Amino acid sequence: MKFTYKNTLISCYVCFFIQSIVNNFSPLLFSTYSREFSVSLDQITLLVGFNFTIQMIVDLLGAGFADRIGYRRGIVIAHIFSAVGIAGLGVFPYIMPPFAGLLTATVFCALGSGFIEVLASPIVEALPTEEKSSAMSLLHSFYCWGHIAIVLLSTLFFSLAGGADWRILAFLWAIIPAVNCIFFIFVPINSYSAGRETIPARKLFSLRDFRLFLLLMICAGAAEQSIAQWASLFAETGLGVSKTVGDLLGPCMFALMMALSRTFYGAFGAKLKLSRVMTVCAVGMIGGYVLTFAAPIPAVSLIGCAVVGLFVGIYWPGTLSLATRKLPQGGTSMFALLALAGDVGCAGGPSLIGLVSGRLSGDASLKVGILSAAIFPIAAFILLNALKSKRNQPETDSDL
Fold this sequence. Notes:
The protein has 2 domains: 1-193, MFS general substrate transporter like domains (Growth Hormone, Chain: A, Up-down Bundle), CATH 1.20.1250.20; 196-400, Growth Hormone, Chain: A. Helix content is 79%, strand content 0%. The chain is built from 17 helices and no strands.
């Protein structure tokens, strides 16, 4: 069988599905960890912190490592780590102290996911195809579709097979990175940095545009995860529904709207001006946050959360696409540093909501906390206009 660049693109799509498994499957098992292994809430918090901290470290260091060993070896190693980590959730706690086993599996998962984040986007950008921004948007939509699929299929599995067989599900999810790893051994891969003079990572920080893109990525991650992390609790407390229903009405609906917006831009983005779309989406996000806060009916507030999901979807992949057009010599280091900035936003946005909500009392405290996160789309709007200002370097792309 002869593999083509289309097979490479499909394999990259699967990469982001795998990232979603890493980040969203284990949280579905938190109650199982507590019941079966007597894992405390503090230990579960440590698992979450380890996952994202290691991913940020890989974002910071992974680019140089990838350039030394090559994209193919790097992405294959990332898949091996991911497969071992996901399957390890059902193995390691039984062959070593349970929490140490879960922590070991989490480390493998985080290493794999972080390396995928560093490599998948530049692999797509290096493909000899047109309309890179559309391909990038569709690429990132698979994280959202993966999130939805993992919640729905895992819930279905637990309903049919029972929670006691959760280890089987871990092994089933691990099949996906194992198979995709084999494909990456054979598909054609180009290096984004090959054949072009790249800007050293240290010099990138001296460029005004790059600093603006870093801030824009922080806003993208923060605006996205501010709703994603709190939507379930917001649905439960606002509507008085169960955890399962809250997950479906909250994060699942939010992820669906993100997936639809990224898929839409992936299909029709060639006809649209990316920077203009992102400016409109910033305004839409602000409106979604205000609707979530101001709506007198809880169900309408949830619609506001969905509106944020619809308009925030384009921001992470859109920022990457704008950066590669404005700074084509950024190299792999640029992708890694932008991913790191996005992860910083993913951690900071939900923390801001928790901090603001925790300082207030009453039923509206979470609403006020969510409203505080509107600062991120407001900042994104300002940053986009700064990138288009005359103080920038000469325009090299009509999208800016």
